[in-house]
Design brief:
Chain lengths: ~290, ~150
């Protein structure tokens, strides 16, 4: 399959982490991660439990802005409050895959969604942590993804540690009652993995056409580079077809790759389409 | 960590009776927990119903009336955010709010207008019938684009 966008490759790579062994909860609206969960649910992970909003066991929804909550609501098998979900999944050792898209990640796996610069006098004030400190630590697998791969995002040390994962080694995590699992960093250049406290992130795979040196040069922390680095699996024709016709026809997984202005313009395009669809439904109903 | 005891919780339910027995069908988020924790509880709801309506479906009752101090009927009370299954997310209105909030000279009049009007005046201004129907259609869960032929 050669006709794919890089965000679609990342969606498919993240989707491959989702299976029916645990529960995945949809957090703050991060389109690329949502698309990955939905793709998994619609393909290899049909038995996986997803919880979105308060809809437990929701079906694969179609990515949109205004209508996703109602899609999650219709066709789920149960309703849980926020506290029920948090205590049962996040703190109850049932969380499978957690995706975050922070401003920075560092070589120790800390993430920053709080501030760039000094905390008291920030250069940029970011949205903040929300539930991320809890989920970053407690979920079995942590996926950090970015729409770009450079030394501003992949830094030696984050400006502010909104959340972190400690310990990282499987035995040490299990000894503390935490689910064992790695931290993965998924970017347009490739995939990095850290699964041991005393070893740096290693390059797990390079995306097609990317040289491993490009990854090393654009990463602000030390990497372990194996002698043979495989290429990230490319999407199948079936995955691309599902994404473009069923799961994400508006291409919301592109959001992370757009600058602020392009993003606002793109958002308007998606909302216009949603309005037309809802208005047609309203017309049918009246 | 000490428990938070809010002075007041203001929650929005799908329906409630005059005693404040509150029912939800869609997301209740932290409403019931907030109501249990707070010293005083104010409920707004899409509609106030007779107690018999509550009794007909007791499993949907998330906040019992003994926790509640006041009940206010406020249709579209969660707008421009959602109250599934009644209405979806008015992302367009939230966009206007976000645009207004960028600068003090646009934010002040935006806020002054909302502060000066009643709930009913707000609904009449922001939610004319056609827009109201679109918001309701967004809650149907059927706003998917159909697969390309």
């Amino acid at each position: 399959m050669s006709d794919y966008r890089i965000d679609e490759l990342m969606v498919c790579r993240i989707a491959s982490e989702v299976d029916a062994s645990g529960v995945t909860v949809l957090g703050s609206f991060t389109p690329l991660a949502y698309a990955a969960y939905m793709l998994a649910k619609a393909t290899h992970a049909r038995d996986a439990y997803l919880i979105g909003f308060n809809a437990v066991g929701m079906k694969a929804l179609q990515m949109s802005i205004a209508g996703v909550e109602a899609q999650a609501y219709h066709g789920a098998i149960g309703r849980w409050s926020f506290i029920e979900t948090t205590s049962t999944v996040h703190l109850g050792r049932r969380g499978l895959v957690e995706c975050v898209s922070p401003a920075q990640v560092d070589g120790e796996g800390r993430i920053n969604t709080s501030v760039i610069g000094d905390y008291e006098h920030p250069k940029v004030r970011l949205p903040g942590g929300a539930g991320s400190p809890e989920v970053v630590q407690n979920y079995q697998k942590l996926v950090v993804y970015f729409g770009g791969h450079d030394t501003r995002r992949l830094v030696e040390r984050v400006d502010f540690a909104t959340g972190g994962r400690w310990p990282i080694s499987a035995e040490a995590r299990e000894a503390r009652g935490l689910l064992p699992g790695p931290i993965m960093v998924v970017t347009p250049l490739g995939v990095l993995v850290k699964d041991h406290d005393d070893r740096p992130f290693r390059v797990e795979s390079v995306n097609p056409g990317v040289d491993v040196q490009e990854i090393v040069d654009n990463t602000g922390f030390v990497l372990e580079v194996p002698s043979q680095v495989p290429t990230t699996a490319v999407p199948t024709a079936k995955q691309i077809d599902l994404l473009r016709t069923e799961i994400d026809p508006h291409g919301t997984s592109r959001f992370d790759f757009l600058d602020t202005e392009a993003r606002a313009e793109y958002l308007r395009t998606i909302l216009d389409a949603e309005w037309r669809r809802a208005a047609a439904l309203a017309e049918e109903a009246s | 960590v000490r428990a938070i005891v809010p002075d007041v919780a203001i929650v929005h339910a799908l329906r409630a009776d005059a005693e404040g027995n509150c029912q939800y069908d869609g997301p209740e988020a932290i409403d019931a927990d907030a109501a249990r924790a707070a010293r005083r509880v104010v409920v707004t709801c899409e509609e106030i119903v007779d107690r018999e309506v509550i009794e007909a479906n007791p499993a949907a009752t998330k906040i019992p009336g003994f926790l509640v101090d006041a009940v206010i009927e406020a249709p579209f009370g969660a707008h421009p955010t959602t109250h599934v299954p009644r209405y979806g997310f008015d992302a367009w209105q939230v966009g206007e709010y976000a645009a207004a909030a960028r600068r003090e000279e646009t934010w002040a009049p935006y806020l002054a207008q909302i502060a000066a009007e009643t709930e009913q005046e707000y609904r009449e201004r922001v939610l004319p019938p056609q827009r109201r129907r679109v918001m309701e259609a967004l809650a149907l869960g059927r706003t998917r684009e159909r697969a390309a032929a």
